[in-house]
Amino acid sequence: MKLRWSDVTPKADYLNRRAFIAAGAAAMAAPAWALTGKPSAYSTDQKPNTLEEITNYNNFYEFGMDKTDPARHAGAMVTDPWSVEVGGMVDRPGSYGVDDIAPQNALEERIYRLRCVEGWSMVIPWIGVPLAGVLAKAGVQPGAKFVAFETLYRPEQMRGQARPILDWPYREGLRLDEAMHPLTILATGLYGDVLPNQNGAPIRLVVPWKYGFKSIKSIVKITLTDRQPVATWQAMQPSEYGFYANVNPQVDHPRWSQATERRIGAGLFGGREETQMFNGYADQVASLYAGMDLAKDY
Ligand SMILES: Nc1nc2c(c(=O)[nH]1)N[C@H]1C(S)=C(S)[C@@H](COP(=O)(O)O)O[C@H]1N2
Ligand SMILES: [Mo]
Predict the structure, then answer these.
(1) Which end of the chain is more exposed for a tag (fewer CB within 10 A), N or C?
(2) What is the full DSSP assignment across 31-60?
(3) Is 243 in the pocket of ligand 1 (CB under 6 A)?
(4) Distance (Å, rounded) from C-alpha 181 to C-alpha 23?
(5) For ligand 1, atom 20, which residue shows the shortest CA distance?
(6) Which of 51, 66, 217, 264 has most ligand 1 atoms within 8 Å of CB, for mutation?
(7) For range 165-176, the mean pLDDT
């Protein structure tokens, strides 16, 4: 039997809010891994970072640019109620609740590497559902070629949005085949509990073979389209951040090398590790880019 990390990790010291609301008083007796999905063959066997590391070293510019800003300020974001507008080229457009998109019985645990374009990395035990299933439920129309995502825009709760740090709201996009790939998930939890706000509550994208900025947080809009969507970082600095943003140790960022990475938590003497092609997921995803020049389509 494969032990889930959540089985050996003490429960986070906050209430399992969603299960409580969903199941009422009965949920008070729910086990610590109530939000833990089925373990997955797609998971890495590398040791996950601690909950402490995962929730205190974040990029979430809606709450400021320092790594500790999200942990300090994301609590102001109200995540319940929440709805995700699914639209564009789908048969069943509409406003979906988080539990419609990621019902309890469909949740899976995915322990993925996360490689930030800045040159650091972590291993995170996500809980979520494959995006492919969500798109299938919405009914993707034949002409659709891309999926566009948008983060919540609510400057009164997201203090960074009061400043023009980025062109708000944060936007990202995937090619449809990337969105349908079994590694691509919408996460609603980590370490067996609901997603902390600083990690993109209540629902965020996780695309483990791409630089972290593609994994957009706190999603309110998913749109199927036949045109390549505008992505925030790409629009701001196209020479530095491409639409594809596949992790690639051979294609350097104009201002730094991407050959190596620093694993958060490795300590002072941890040293840098070699970055792997497609962040180590080449066997699963390289075929998506057959015939493409990845130095050009970075
Ligand atoms: N809306 C939004 N999504 C975002 C970001 C952001 O600033 N805003 N930062 C991205 C970047 S650069 C990274 S590395 C990851 C970090 O995810 P984590 O904080 O859960 O580790 O979130 C990504 N998603
Ligand atoms: Mo990042």
Answers:
(1) N
(2) -TTTT--EE-TT---SPPPPHHHHHHS---
(3) no
(4) 32
(5) 199
(6) 217
(7) 98
**Eight-state DSSP code of residue 30:** -
pLDDT in tens, 200-227: 999 999 999 999 999 999 999 999 999 9
Mutate to test the pocket of ligand 1, among 50, 51, 55, 60 (most ligand atoms within 8 A of CB): 60
The confidence score (pLDDT) of residue 14 equals 32
CA distance 238 to 142: 30
Of all atoms in ligand 1, which is nearest to the CA of residue 169? 1
CA dist., res. 78 & res. 205, Å (int): 19
Atom nearest to 218 CA in ligand 1: 1
Summarised one tens digit per residue, pLDDT across range 83-141 is 999 999 999 999 999 999 999 999 999 999 999 999 999 999 999 999 999 999 999 99
Pairing of strands 260-263, 273-274: antiparallel
